[in-house]
Each structure stands twice: as C-alpha cells, then as structure tokens.
Amino acid sequence: MSLIVQKFGGSSVRDAARLKNVARIVADTYEAGNDVVVVVSAQGDTTDNLIAMASEVAAKPSRREMDVLMSTGEQISAALLTMTLNEMGFPAKSLTGWQAGFLTDSNHRSARIRRISKERLENELGKKNIAVVTGFQGINRYDDITTLGRGGSDTSAVALAAALGAARCQIFTDVDGVYTADPRLVKTARKLSEITYDEMLELATLGAQVLHNRSVEMAKRYNVEIEVLSSLERKPGTIVKEVVKVEKMMITGVAKDDKVARIALVGLPDKPGVAFKVFSLLASRRVNVDIILQSIGRDNTKDITFTVADSDKQIAIDALTELSPSLGIKEIVADDMISKVSIVGAGMESNPGVAAKMFEALFDANINIHMISTSEIKISVLIDKELGSKAVTAIHNAFEV
Ligand code: ADP
Ligand code: ASP
Ligand code: MG
User: Taking 70 as the threshold, does the pLDDT of residue 183 lie above it?
Assistant: First the structure.
C-alpha cells in the first residue's frame, strides 16, 4: 500500500461528465489499495471568469480580496468531486487549503508555501478517506486566504507529495505528457518520456504552462518525481526527475511566453548608480525583471530596455514615473505586443552553434529579433507577438527535436 497524490487541472474537472471520469481514476487508485490525496483546480475557465467579475466592480481590487474570490473556484471542484465519489460509494472528504494545512507567506496572488500541517490530512487518511484538497490556495499567519499564482494547483500537489512522503505525484491534464513544444501549436512536437527537473523548470518558467514553475522547483528540492499524464487516455505520461536515461539532444524543447511587456527608459544619465536606482525600485515593488539591455552611452545619456510580466507592466511604469524627475528619465516607452520564444536543453552546453542555428531559423522565416538573452541551458529571443507561433514552429523544425 502506498500514498499517491493525484492532481486534476481545470479542463479535467470541467463538467459532470469529466468529474465522473476523474472520480473513476481516483476510485481505481483507491481500490488498488492505496491512500489517495486528490488536488483539484477550478473548473474550466472559472478562475478567468472570477477575475473578470472583479474587474466589473473595481479598477484595482485589493490583492487580499482577489484571493478570497479566486479561491472559491477550487472549492466548487473539490465539493463536486467529493460528492461524485460519495455517490459511487467511496469515502471521500473535501478539504480547503487551510483545512489541509497550507500555511503560506502573505504575498497575495503569488504566495509561497511555508509549511504544511499534516495532522488533519493524516487523520483523514487514517480513517481510509480519500482526501480531496482544493489546489492553488492556503492561509497566511493572520488566517487570511492566499493563492499561489496562476497555475498554482500543480505546486499544491507537489507540496503535498513532499510533505506526506508520497510514493507518486501524478499531474493529470488535457495533454498526455510534456512535449518538445506546445502540441497545440506545433503538430510535429514529440512527447518526452522523461525530462530533468532543470530543463522542465526552464521550460515552465519560459512559458510552457503544462507545469507551474514553482511545482518543478519544489519537486527538485524535495526530490519528488512528477508524472504528467492525460486524464482522458490511460497511458504512460512524462516523468520529471533528476537524471534521465535518454541521450542528450541538442535541445529538449521550445517554449513561448506571450505575457511579456518591454519597457524602454530613454535618455538616462550615463553615470554610476542609475541601473541600481531603477532596478532596486522595481524590486521593492516586487516586479521581476527578465531580459535587460543597456545601450552604449551617447552624449552622456544611455537607454535601458528590459522585460517584465505584462501583469507587472503598469506597476513598473507607475514606479518609474515617480522616479523620473529625480533620475532624469527623458521618456518611458512600454509595449506588450511582443513574445518571448526560447529553446531549452542541457545539451546546449556541449554543442557550439546552437544559438546560430536558432537565429538562422528565425532569419529563414523572416522574423526580426528585438532582444536576446542566454544562460547555460536556454536561449531566449524577443520578437513581435503576431509572429510567436510561426517562430516556435520554425525553430522546432530547424532542430528536428
Ligand atoms: P491544467 O488545466 O490541467 O493545469 P494547463 O492548461 O495549465 O492544464 O496546461 C496544459 C497545457 O499546456 C496543454 O493544453 C498545452 O497546450 C500546454 N503546453 C504548453 N507547452 C507544453 C509542452 N511543452 N508540453 C505539453 N503541453 C504544453
Ligand atoms: N485555478 C487556478 C488557475 O486557473 C489554479 C490552477 O488551475 O492551477 O490559475
Ligand atoms: Mg495548469
């Protein structure tokens, strides 16, 4: 007998038929003699709809209230799945984030899990109940509801698997594994049987939404193997783990992120301390900066261009507008009609010419590159948004991954 954590995403619990399908998978796992902890996301587009409802009543709703609102989606799924299981004759109980012991920091809408108090869950499992836990949520030390960031139910599942020492952590979704590119975008994308934590973390961070990047970070830290698989077809998925058997290819995958904004600060004084002032201010507003480019100084001025998540664009502009008079920024230009397209692969380190091959593929497709950034196992380029999908396909074809 072992403990298995199974997470089901929004499309997997979309309606009554899908809930019954999920209940069958859970029931089979339970009937095979396992303890089962289930983590569910909100049904279908529920979270998007809740966010839209908030924007109808408030221009800038507080982050605390957004968390109270958004966490309701998962509560619906957990109750409905539990009822479905009960109806089938299985002992199941739903638990909200706080009932399941998720203690997080107070960074509303993007909270980090600090600790999981396991008592209640262990108690339910001891009574042979299937525990159906709401993903994506917890409480902070003031007992306020928090959420873990979009896509965060994956992280809830991995955190539970780590805390409970689960034998397996299965992430069921609407594709049958992790592919070399989004299979909805690139028809020739190939399913990977295994992928390393490091490569999966890069892909997830660079826009492959199949796993929440923090779930991969956590899986690596606590050595939890994740299996990504389909909730609709019963077949093996992709294992995410430390070391993989498959031979190293030049690149492992291609990812695209459309939720990026580029901000250019034009005509900054070309003197020490300017970059420090700009980026420490952004850090103090919790804005994560990604690619940074600084121009060569001219007439004692320089330009700094950088990218942020498009959800942070306005916060960044507001902060920099405040700073503008004291720092002497001539102009702030923001643009979110861009896409970041990246290639990821540990094989890159030992293969010179990977970057050239990527740039050649873009050249052949007549796609202009605005910015470039590289690390040991990834290369990212910024391009016009409408060319994003074309770029992913062109690059994927060039590498024949
Ligand atoms: P869930 O609701 O189950 O959490 P998500 O929509 O968050 O599912 O993630 C699954 C989606 O991720 C797939 O439908 C697919 O379009 C997308 N995706 C992006 N990149 C990849 C990739 N490399 N491999 C598999 N799926 C990917
Ligand atoms: N329901 C949340 C979202 O849509 C969390 C999740 O699905 O993982 O982002
Ligand atoms: Mg998801």
Answer: yes
Give the helix/strand (H/E) hosting 320.
helix 313-327
Element (H, E) at 71: helix 63-87
- Which helix (H) or strand (E) segment holds residue 30: the answer is helix 16-31
Among all ligands shown, which has an atom nearest to the Cα of 155? 2
Q: How far apart are CA 261 and CA 317, in angstroms?
A: 11
Give the distance between the most distant pair of CA atoms in the chain.
77
Q: Whose CA is nearest to atom 5 of ligand 1?
A: 210
Residues 6+ apart with CB under 8 A from 305: 262, 263, 264, 265, 292, 293, 294, 295, 371
Mutate to test the pocket of ligand 2, among 8, 11, 41 (most ligand atoms within 8 A of CB): 41
Per the document, the length of the chain is 401
Task: Kindly give the distance from the C-alpha atom of residue 108 to the centroid of ligand 2, in angstroms, as a whole number.
Answer: 14
Q: Is the pTM of this model over 0.90?
A: yes
Q: 251-291: per-residue pLDDT in tens?
A: 999 999 999 999 999 999 999 999 999 999 999 999 999 99
What's the pLDDT tens digit per position in 186-208? 999 999 999 999 999 999 999 99
The preferred substitution site among 25, 153, 172, 173 for testing ligand 1, maximizing ligand atoms within 8 Å of CB, is: 173
Gyration radius of the chain over CA positions: 23
pLDDT digits (tens, 9 = 90+) for 89-113: 999 999 999 999 999 999 999 999 9
pLDDT at residue number 351: 83
Indicate which atom in ligand 1 lies nearest the CA of residue 254: 23
Q: 152: Cβ below 6 Å to ligand 2?
A: yes
User: Is residue 136 in contact with ligand 2, taking CB distance under 6 Å?
Assistant: yes
CA atoms of 401 and 182, how far apart (whole Å): 13
Contact partners, residue 396, CB within 8 Å, separation at least 6: 180, 181, 186, 188, 189, 254
